[in-house]
Amino acid sequence: MSDQQTIDTAQLGEKIVTVLKTIYDPEIPVDIYELGLIYDVFVNEDSEVKILMTLTTPNCPVAETLPVEVEEKVKTVDMVKDCVVEITFDPPWSQDLMSEEAKLELGLL
């Protein structure tokens, strides 16, 4: 039974990442996952999710709305019972956290 739960949390994690890739920073035409704003996604056996993320800057204009959007969209994923988003600035975001795809999209490669 525990093997099944492990598979479920891994599958759920993948579904959550898929949803995160639909959320965009309004100032940059790249999704927040590829931008490197998502530091970690935790899924427990009760299908409760905790997302550790950052913003491009502490004064980011979407500091109030982006975490709420992430929380609401993740809660729409089947099997997710709850979602909490925690914002951190440690380590601070930098362009080094962006995926190759994001850097290519923004002409940084």
UniProtKB/TrEMBL annotation:
It holds the Pfam family FeS_assembly_P. InterPro entries: Fe-S_Maturation_MIP18 (IPR052339), FSCA_dom_sf (IPR034904), MIP18-like (IPR002744). Residues 14-86 form the MIP18 family-like domain. This is MIP18 family-like domain-containing protein. It comes from Zhouia amylolytica AD3.
